[in-house]
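Collaborator request log, item 7. Partner lab (contact: R.S.) asked for a structural prediction of L-threonine 3-dehydrogenase to inform their binding assays.
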Amino acid sequence: MKALVKEKAEPGLRLMDVPEPEIGPGDVLIKVLRTGICGTDLHISAWDGWAQQAIATPLVVGHEFVGEVVGTGRDVEDIAVGDRVSGEGHLVCGKCRNCLAGRRHMCRATVGLGVGRDGAFAEYVALPATNVWVHKVPVDLDVAAIFDPFGNAVHTALSFPIVGEDVLITGAGPIGLMAAAVARHAGARNVVITDVSEERLELARKIGVSLALNVAETTVAEGQQVLGLREGFDIGLEMSGRPEAMRDLIANLTNGGRIAMLGLPSQEFAVDWAKIVTSMITIKGVYGREMFETWYAMSVLLEGGLDLSPVITGRYDYREHEAAFADAAGGRGGKVILDWTV
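Returned to partner:
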């Protein structure tokens, strides 16, 4: 089969022929239809410092996908050939304290699809049945391909009660945009998003945010004045991993404000801990999705009319992967999709 492979310890990916994956008694074989390019894939392609530490070559990359089941192991129940599915990309041990308590997203032995084992940028991918999400209600293929990052957005946006609250989102990348759409749909009063890319801020306006701020030109405090906020934001969603963004969040929260932080910083940075203490601010780190409560919420949100189509801005044949990766790395658009059906 054809697959995108990190063949050697060097920049770039190669489209090449590799053996089809084999499945065990508890596994599912899936024909891949569409995939989404993630920031993790960009790191692996660029072969940066993180990738050099985390990746063993050769490796089939990719973890965001939708496909059709074409085979199941003998012990698999409730998943059938022909089912349309997406996959939870965190494979957990099932035996540690957190797994046994139902907190599988906190498993200390997590293995990432397309990071620690061969992934989904291929014509076929194999997954344990326990990691397969069957779409019971029809979902647009492009949207189904990005259920993994959509789950990150939902997990972050719904970390705290959001109805009637004023929400500040720092970072209008694809997950930040999806989080903004979720917050609006879930009943936030005001949703403000910040970035320095006018192209991405324009996407946020299409989603329907209350205010899209270019923080290179306008401060968050000035944004508060535009909306008539007197005490600051109730909830902050940090999606950028940038120190200046986190500082903006802390400085513009009300007393008792809450921050859900998904953005992954590239290095340590200082924040105003005195402000955090005296304003009684709660900070929650978010990684991945709650299995499978977040997935249920994702499906229900889409059934309820949540529209993610503005977030998807690039669609490519998988053989055009170089152009697709360049688009995704450009930092101006939303999600980029690779079509494996052509």
